[in-house]
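This part of the workshop introduces the protein records we will be handling. An example says more than a description, so a record of this kind follows.
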Amino acid sequence: MAVFQHITQSVRVLLIALLSVPVFAGLVGVVLPAFGYFPALNAFDFNLGVFKHLFALESIVNMTLLSLLTGLIATALSVASAFLLLSVFYRSSYLNRLQSWLSPLLVLPHAAAAIALLFVLSPSGLLASVVSNAVSVFSSGAENLSNTQNVLPPMWEFPYDRFGISIIVALALKELPFVFLIAVSVLSQPQVKRKFDGYFNSATALGYAPVTVFFKAIFPVVYSQVRLPLLAVLAYATANVEIPLLLGPNNPPTLAVAVVQWFNHVDLSMRFQASAAALLQVVVTLIAIGIWLIGENIIERVQGRFYTNGSRYTGQMFASFVAYSVVASYSLLALSIIISTTLWSVATFWTFPTLLPEGFTLLHWKTTLSALAEPVKNTVLLATFVSAFSVLIATLALEAEALNRQDNKRSEYFNRWVGGVLASTLFLPLLVPGVAFLYGLVWFQLTYFNDAVWLHLFISHLVYVLPYVFISLAVAYRKFEPRYIQVAYGMGKSPWQVFVHIKLPLLFAPLLVAFALGVAISFSQYLPTVLSTGGRIATVTTEAVAAASGSSVRLTAVYVLVQIFMPLVGFVLAWWLPTICFNPMGRYTLLRPRKSKL
């Protein structure tokens, strides 16, 4: 085995360690205080007293149900909407446009999405202003429009409603692009596409409607391949902190928000209760996953009648109505968010229900940008190093996987075992709630590396960035044309020469997209940044959440636009650079119209 192959195999094992060790160490750091053992607070006895105190809280049931139900309903809505969109627009020219429209929303941080929704859907937001002006015009005539100056905002419960509807709406809107795009990535795989084309052509020739064909022949195959990412979405939705913190009820909050509040309490003894609640959050996430799997089994048992009823138009009208409604609502909401956020960022004085501010100024931008110099520098440096390291590790691990296919049978069992462990480990940080292991991880970091703040921050971001970078890069790496490699080996080239001179130039575009995705994921991290640094290092996201909690609306709007703009720059560069690097003809093909992949 060559030196290069040894290095790639070692990196593959290193990747497993980088993802699993922080999670397990963090869980241990939470489990011990939950059972009463915390040497830093002179607690050395294991007992169940902390759990008894936690379950004696009056609001613990409400907090638990709020986390469970909001996560389940939001995930179900996003999955149902995504597959209804695919069923209606599959093999349509609109599918590629939808993919282009939804892709930028994928990089929008959760905190920025929650703040932007406040500008549109709050009682004094843009929607309420439009409705109030419309009602006034239709009821009193256009000449009395000036009377709306004294109208008070309506008293609806968005945000901060006690049922968590605002959380469900925000989570569903944010997760829909992810579910849609990951399903499209499966549908666009060449082998899968050829098989589905055959199903589709045969079924439509027999008179089946496109939506019926999709749900009877294509959906079962696609769903089985995106099932694990969907469970990761469900786990994230049940334990999310940013959106419930900004849009959810305060008394009681969701369980994840309560855990954060108890961990940050000035009374250090609250760490015991917070640790027990963090473990309860793990149980809530497992219950949500269990309910989801039970729902899958129930649907699987009753779907036989759907497949054999012979109906050729089942769900066609309903799916079309819902899909077009989702597209219209999403487009209207996205346009409203852009308009209201941009206007708030340059507004001087703007009262409800006037549709435009009294004047415009760039003072908020000057104030915010001068204050954001240090957070922007921290954010960009951290995201660059974490993403570059993640791309390097993921590339070498995927190269090890490719080289293993050419290896002898002696190490076949070991390689298969490592591959299985790696596939399971990739989703470990996404399936285990962050509040359940990040606090324990911080405890370990402070115990053994108290002064290495940047190292803590780097590792906390790495456990979230690395899985997404690997998954993004794996699709292109595994579809790499093997004949290029065979020709190079036939000319006597070594694996290292093939990797450097053939694979890296040809995979330049996917490498940049994976890097840009890593940057976007790092930009959006709020909880890992706050916990691992204790507030000593500020990023744009932490400053945006802090601004939304008590600062000016106008300054908050600037923070949101900066959060949206920064990851978009990375993706624009990832799209543009491959057209001029390692691709001399790219500049000429750039202007050609794109064809749908499906």
